[in-house]
Amino acid sequence: MIQFLMGILFLYLLFMSFEIPFVFKSDTGSVGFFADTLPKHVLLENEAEELYTASRPSKDTSASTYQTFSRAPERRMREFKRVSGLFFNESALDDSESNIDEFSVLHKIAKDAWSVGKKVWDELESAETISKTQIEPNKTKSESCPHSISLSGSDFVNRSHLMVLPCGLTLGSHVTVVGKPHWAHPEDDPKIASLKEGEEAVLVSQFMMELQGLKTVDGEDPPRILHFNPRLKGDWSGRPVIEMNTCYRMQWGSALRCEGWRSRADEETEAVVKKWIKLAFACVEYACIRLPDICAELCFINDVVLCAVDGKVKCEKWIRDDDEHSEESKAAWWLNRLIGRTKKVTVEWPYPFSEGNLFVLTIAAGLEGYHITVDGRHVTSFPYRTGFALEDATGLSVNGNVDLHFLFAASLPTSHPSFAPQKHLEMLTKWRAPPLPDGHVELFIGILSAGNHFAERMAVRKSWMQHKLITSSKVVARFFVALHGRKEVNLDLKKEAEYFGDIVIVPYMDAYDLVVLKTVAICEYGVRTVAANYIMKCDDDTFIRVDAVMKEARKVREDKNLYIGNMNYYHRPLRHGKWAVTYEEWPEEEYPPYANGPGYIVSSDIAQFIVADFEKHKLRLFKMEDVSMGMWVEKFNNSKPVEYVHSLKFCQFGCIEDYYTAHYQSPRQMVCMWDKLQNQGKPQCCNMR
Predict the structure, then answer these.
(1) Least crowded by CB within 10 Å, which of 168, 400, 489, 678?
(2) Superkingdom, according to UniProt (predicted)?
(3) Model confidence pLDDT, tens digit, residues 664-675
C-alpha cells in the first residue's frame, strides 16, 4: 500500500511539472503580483488574507447589472405552501421541439416529469386523498415481521439471490448459510487475466456475502452494511484471504483483510500503522484533486481500530512463519512490506473454505460487531461502523462462485423497521425552521434531498442547521425535494414539510437525470424568495461548517461575482461503464471548470442569470448537475468576469482535517460531527461508518 501511495505521489509531481508552466502563464486582464501569472478563470487561495469582519452588504443595483430581487407577498405565499416558484414554460418548448440543437432530449424528459408531477401534486392536495391517509398509520403499526426465515438454495436463486429481512437484525440475531464453493476457473476479466508469455492461466474462486440496506437512491446500489468476501485462490497477496468492508452511497470504507495472521491489539502495531497512514495521507492530500477516483477511498481513512470485538479477535490465524512460530515485531513486518520483502509461509490449519466441499457459515450480531464462524469455528469478527444500525440490514445477498443449499435466519426482530418515517422524524418544535427574516440574508443554502430521505433530513436538522447563524435567520437553509414514485412517501413528505417548514417541494417526478432541476429551483428560491447575496448548493449527506463557508465567501471583493468549491479542471467525460456519458449528451472532449456537487457557492447575479435563461428555455441542461453549473457559470463569465475559488476543504470524498464541507456522511456521522464541533470547538471527522 505504501509503495502504491509513493507511486501516486511520483505521478502527481511529474504531472505538476508539466502543468505549472501553463498555470503561470501571463494574463493581461489582471492586476497585482499573481495577476500577471494566473489564467483569468482561476483564483488561488490566500489563507493569509484578512477576512471581512462585517456582513457583506447587498450588491449595488445599477442599469448595467442584474438587480437583486426583493421579497414580494406572492413569493411569501409560495414559501408558505412549500412549493417551488420555478416556472416551467411548456408552451415555449412545444413551439421549439423541432430544434434539436437548442432543446435536448433531457428538456423533453423534464417536460414530461413536470407534467406528471403537477398531476400528482394536485392529487396530494385534494381533500379526498388527505382523508384517506388518516388510516394509514394505524394500519402500519399493526404489521409485524417473522421471527425466523428459511429458504432453500433454489428459492434463493428464484428471488434474485436475495433473502429479505423485513425488520432487519437485532442483538442476538444470526444468519446461517450452507453452501459449496465452485472449483477454480480461469479469470475472464481481461485486466486481471492479462499474462506474461509462458505463465499459466490465473485461476479464481471467490464469493461475496453481503448484508444490505434495501432503502436505495435512484441510480445507486444499496448500502452494504457488511461485505464478506472469501477469495479461495487469493488476490494480489498471493494467498487465500478474507476481505470485509462497508459501502455507503457507492463509496467503500477502509477494508479489513484477514490474510492468515492472528490479529493483535498491540500498541506498537497501532502506532506504526497510524504513523504510516498519516505519512501516506499527507503525501497524496494535494494529489486528490488530480486523481479523485484513486484517492476516493483514502479520504475515508482517519483512524485504525485494532482491538478485539466482544473479546474475539478480528482475524484468526491459519498460517505460520518459517522460523517455528517465532513472530517478528510488527515494526519489522511493516518495514518488510514497505521495501517489498516477502516471506514464504506454510499452512498451520486449513483456510476455512475449500473448493467442492460443503461449509456451514453463520453470522451472529453481537454487542460490538458481527461474528462469523465456519463449521463451528470462529474465523473473524467485524466491528460495527458508525452510520449502520442492526435494523438497517434488511437483506442478505450472496453472489459469486458458490452453490447454496440452505439459508436460515433466526432471532429476528418482529417490530416494524425503524426506517419508517414515523420512527425517524422527531416532531419537536425545536427542530422547526425559523421564519424568513424581513431584513438582510447573506447566504442561502439549498439542500438536495430525495423524498424518502427522512433520516438524512432529520440528521441535518439536528446537526449543522442548529448553527447560530441559521437559528438567528442570518443564514437560511431549505431542503429541495421532488415528488417520489410512491404515493405514501409523498403523503409523509407533505406532512413533514408542513410541520418543519424547511422543505421546498419541486413539483416534478424525481429521477437521477433530472437532479439538475432542483439546482435551478435552489437558484430561483435564493434570489426571488430569500434575496440572498450568495447561494450555496449541497446534498443531504453533506456536513457544512456554516461560519467557515461564510468566511471563504467574504474573501472575495463584494463587487466581484464568485464561484467557490472544490474545482475540477480539464476533466473528461467517461464514455464507458455505469456512469458513461454519450457523445449525444456531451459532444465536447472536456468539461468546463466546475465545482464538485456536494458543496459549492455562487453569487446572486449568477443564480439570477440561470433562472432567467431557464424560464426562456435558453439554459442548456445536462444530467450531471455540478457540470451543468460549471457550464452555466462559464457562459455567464463570457459577459461578466467571475472569480473561480478552489479549495480542497470542500471535500468531495468523505471528510478531511479542517474541512469546510464533508461529503458522504451518514445520519449518525452528521450528529457525531456536530457534537465534536460543539464540545471540542474544532472540526473533527467521524469517519468510521
Answers:
(1) 678
(2) Eukaryota
(3) 888 888 998 999
